[in-house]
Design goal:
The complex is a heterodimer of chains A (719) and B (123). Chain A is of the alpha/beta class and 719 residues long. Chain A has helices at 17-52, 55-58, 60-82, 84-90, 92-121, 125-144, 149-167, 174-258, 265-296, 309-326, 347-363, 399-407, 414-420, 426-436, 473-477, 480-485, 503-516, 526-538, 557-566, 584-591, 603-613, 634-656, 660-676, 680-695, 699-715, and strands at 305-307, 330-336, 339-340, 343-345, 369-377, 385-391, 440-445, 451-458, 467-468, 495-499, 519-523, 545-549, 573-577, 595-598. A 5-stranded mixed sheet of chain A has the order 2-5-6-8-7, with helices on one face. A 5-stranded parallel sheet of chain A has the order 11-10-12-13-14, with helices on both faces. A two-stranded antiparallel ribbon of chain A has the order 1-4. In chain A, strand 7 (440-445) and strand 8 form a beta hairpin. Chain A is rod-shaped. Chain A starts with 16 loop residues before the first helix and ends with a helix. Chain B has 123 residues and is of the alpha/beta class. Helices cover 41% and strands 21% of the residues of chain B. Chain B contains 5 helices and 5 strands, in the order E-H-E-H-E-H-E-H-E-H. Chain B has helices spanning 13-23, 35-43, 62-71, 89-97, 110-120; strands at residues 5-9, 28-32, 50-54, 80-84, 100-105. In chain B, helix 2 (35-43) packs parallel to helix 3. The longest helix of chain B is centred in the N-terminal third of the chain and has 11 residues, at 13-23. The chains are: A alpha/beta (719), B alpha/beta (123). Chains A and B meet through helix 8, helix 9 and helix 13 of A and helix 1 of B.
């Protein structure tokens, strides 16, 4: 599963283009190096020749001229040879031409000069000396010039052909001439053949060396890669082990803490929430690991079915906007240009990719806005693409971090995932999924400047597909059909009594509830409501919830509710009221309502409230004081119980008004009092409220603590 | 008899709270979220009698923090207990080499934690 593509298959050795260039460079380098020693030996031979032959004494001026010429040519060649490191890499052709010029001048001087001298001297001792020198110099070319066959052949031709030609003009017998010419020709032929062989041998050894070098480099690279892969693999396993063991430790540890019998209710709830949160986190990590394994093993398959990009974005927005809003971040979906109504892709996977981008963006952004920009590139072409950019205003990344993001199992920083949660595998999964869908992902970012994550996917052919212009997010989100889909359903056994005098509201509430699956009985005033409720209870089939309008003729909702409670009716009653004033809620509660809905009725709120009360007793289990049967306590306990609803509603009022100072004071008082009257649970809940204010927790969480406290107060009543 | 103070260093809130709660009936505790924060927490008085250290943490990991502690003459004598999900023998050896008195691998039970701490504390 790790870097399996890095293992190289064994390939036959052969030269590549770059090897050819390397061989040519090495050959020319060898020629340049060797020509330096060749030039010095040439100079030495010239000195020997001029010193030992009669040339210097017979023709002093010619000898001097020859000496000076050879000195100049040699110096020129020396300069060319020395210029190799600087000139050859820049202008190889020029260097080769210069080298060849020097070689031709030098070889021609030897050859023509030698031939001239032999013609002048005839079969004299000096001529034999000269011939030996020529034989030696031309043979030396075998080693110094074998790297280049053309150089070698030019050298030999200019050395020996003049001498061969001169042989014919030598004064002497035909036998001598023929012998001389034959010897020169045979020697020339021998050198020619030997030169070719030397060149081949030289080239083969050079190529062999290059191939070995390359092989060694390949082996080394493969070794490094496999060491790196194994390091990455063990780091990955260590990270995953950490990611799995940490939540398990929390689950095991908090479960153990729960065994402590002295724990208060709210502590238990907190521990259970920690266990649930860690369990969910663990599940997410394991899902990611399974996804990665599946992808790496080539077992992940993707679909190509008609997929609506705008519908997909609505789904994503509806679940991610909540999380963005909870962090006080803006959240926008924008469409640029016309978007195809459907594309051929895998909705599940595309959703997974974009959700991953968005949840990362939310995680790493402290303030600002998360923007999703959707567009369709080249809709007219053969390969249109859907491009989705997710832009955040978060902490951003360095080049190095970006490179690491998608490239390996190592996360940008193993530690950031710990800080922000998640397995850190999300981006790797997104990248592989996008590739499976025929597209890709990319990222642009700078530290402190936020990031843009982009997924680009082929849409499949758009022939015959409607292109929608001017899509806006809000217009799509709020279509009534979708609003309906989000409403929870009720069990068919759910029976609701609606006490409401207004016809419109009767129809509306009934429709909402019946569509959600409930059975509804409607009555028009409080008196009928009381009759119907008592009759149903007596018949053993009580209503799950009574929805009680507070303003009704004959008997209003407050009076009807109070009357029902007096008659020991103990099922849930929910007040419906047009009043949205503070104090109204309190009034309803005093009358005996369990909860409260304001008009106009919000469909989702209505249904979920009814769902919440369905099949449940009115207040939950009765909370009894531990001193309930203590005769000495009876009187003061009664006083405490009578005051409790007032205290509770004062707390709810302070919470609603966000008056934290009052709320804290009331919670503190209740904390002190409740324990003394044998209500440890209320003390615990009140102290949670107090602590939550001290810790400055977010309003939603505080609200939950307050509601828990109010719930406990409601349940605390005499037997 | 004065209660001993234990410094708990772990980046995971739930785990830090778990360790702290498990030990609080017996010891005083102080918490830090990573190696960098732990350096400040260490400098506060009174000096802790023991450090419980997670190995994998952001910014400065447990091994680096242990090295810092062991390099400082004032804190060298404070025993360190590592908490880690790495449990191979080479990881344990690395932890012991970094100066750990003891090495507890995750997940652990509260009893194991208390026993390890009791054994590691100087008497």
């Amino acid at each position: 599963m790790f870097a399996s593509d890095s293992i190289q298959t064994k390939r036959p050795l052969e030269l590549t283009r770059s090897d050819d260039a390397a061989v040519e460079l090495a050959a020319n380098e060898s020629i340049a190096r060797q020509s330096v020693s060749a030039i010095f030996s040439h100079w030495a031979l010239v000195v020997v020749l001029l010193g030992t032959t009669s040339l210097a004494t017979d023709h002093p001026r010619a000898a001097a001229g020859l000496g000076i010429w050879m000195g100049l040519v040699g110096t020129g060649r020396l300069l060319v040879a020395r210029s190799f490191p600087s000139l050859y890499p820049a202008r190889p052709a020029l260097w080769s031409r210069l080298f060849r010029l020097g070689l031709v001048l030098s070889s021609a001087t030897w050859g023509i000069g030698g031939a001239t001298l032999v013609m002048i001297a005839g079969f004299h001792q000096d001529s034999w000396l000269l011939l030996m020198c020529l034989a030696g110099v031309s043979a030396a070319g075998l080693t110094s010039l074998c790297a280049n066959r053309t150089h070698l052949r030019i050298h030999m031709a200019f050395m020996l052909l003049p001498m061969f030609a001169a042989g014919f003009f030598l004064p002497g017998s035909t036998r001598h001439v023929a012998g001389f010419v034959l010897i020169v020709a045979a020697y020339g032929g021998f050198l020619w053949v030997q030169g070719g062989a030397a060149h081949t041998v030289f080239l083969q050894s050079l190529i062999g060396t290059k191939l070995l070098e390359r092989q060694a480099a390949e082996v080394d690279a493969a070794r490094r890669e496999s060491v790196e892969a194994s390091r990455v693999k063990s780091e990955f396993l260590a990270n995953m082990s950490h990611e799995i063991r940490t939540p398990i430790t929390a689950v095991v540890g908090y479960a153990e803490l729960l065994l402590d019998p002295t724990l208060g209710t709210s502590e238990r709830v907190n521990h259970l929430q920690t266990i649930r949160r860690n369990g969910e986190h663990l599940l997410a990590v394991i899902n990611d690991i399974l996804d990665v394994s599946k992808i790496e093993a080539g077992k992940m398959s993707v679909e190509r079915i008609p997929t609506s990009p705008s519908q997909l974005l609505v789904d994503i927005a509806s679940s991610m906007r909540v999380r963005a809003t909870a962090k006080n971040l803006g959240f926008e979906v924008r469409y640029q240009g016309a978007i195809p109504e459907t594309i051929l892709s895998d909705p599940t996977r595309l959703r997974q990719i974009v959700m991953n981008f968005v949840s990362n963006a939310i995680k790493f952004t402290e303030s600002g806005t998360i923007r999703i920009l959707v567009r369709c590139d080249h809709p007219e072409s053969a390969e249109p693409k859907l491009v989705i950019d997710v832009t955040d205003t978060g902490i951003g990344m360095t080049e190095g971090q970006m490179h690491k993001l998608f490239s390996s199992f190592a996360q940008a920083d193993a530690s950031t995932t710990r800080r922000f949660g998640g397995s850190g595998l999300g981006l790797l999964i997104s990248k592989r999924l996008a590739e499976l869908l025929g597209g890709g992902v990319s990222v642009e970012s700078a530290p402190g400047r936020g990031s843009v994550f982009r997924v680009s996917l082929p849409t499949g052919s758009l022939v015959g597909v409607t292109m929608i212009e001017g899509l806006v997010e809000g217009g799509v989100v709020d279509t009534p059909e979708q609003a309906v889909r989000r409403v929870p359903s009720l069990p068919p056994s759910c029976r609701v009594l609606l006490a409401e005098d207004g016809y419109d509201n009767q129809v509306l509430v009934t429709t909402y509830l019946v569509k959600a699956g409930a059975t509804v009985k409607v009555v028009g005033d409080g008196h009928l409501a009381v009759e119907a409720a008592i009759a149903a209870q007596a018949s053993g089939k009580p209503y799950d919830v009574i929805l009680m309008d507070m303003q009704m003729p004959v008997l209003d909702g407050y009076a009807a509710t109070s009357k029902l409670r007096l008659m020991k009716y103990d099922r849930p009653i929910v007040a419906l009221t047009a009043h949205a004033m503070a104090g109204d809620r309190e009034r309803c509660e005093k009358a005996g309502c369990d909860d409260y809905l304001t008009k106009p009725i919000d469909r989702a709120k209505l249904v979920s409230l009814v769902a919440q009360f369905t099949g449940k007793p009115r207040f939950g289990e009765r909370l009894a004081s531990t001193f309930e049967h203590d005769e000495d306590m009876k009187e003061i306990l009664g006083q405490f119980m009578r005051d409790l609803p007032d205290r509770s509603s004062a707390i709810l009022r302070a919470s609603e008004a966000s008056d934290l100072d009052t709320l804290k004071r009331l919670a503190h008082q209740l904390k002190g009092a409740a324990g003394g009257y044998g209500f440890a649970g209320i003390t615990e809940a009140a102290s949670m409220v107090e602590r939550a204010i001290e810790d400055g927790v977010e309003a939603r969480l505080l609200q939950r603590h307050v509601e828990e406290l109010a719930g406990l107060c409601r349940r605390a009543r005499a037997a | 008899l004065e209660r001993k103070l234990i410094l708990i260093v772990d980046d995971d809130d739930a785990l830090r709270a778990l360790v702290s709660r498990s030990l609080s009936p017996l010891y005083d505790t102080r918490e830090a979220v990573d190696g960098i924060a732990a350096i400040d927490a260490l400098a506060e008085l009174p000096c802790p009698s023991l450090i419980i250290l997670d190995v994998m943490m952001p910014r400065s990991d447990g091994l680096a923090f242990a090295a810092t502690v062991k390099a400082d003459r004032r804190f060298r004598g404070i025993p360190i207990v590592f908490l880690s999900s790495k449990s191979s023998s080479s990881d344990v050896i690395r932890g012991i080499n970094a100066g750990a008195r003891s090495y507890l691998s995750k997940p652990f039970t509260i009893a194991q934690l208390r026993e390890t701490v009791a054994r590691a504390l100087p008497h």
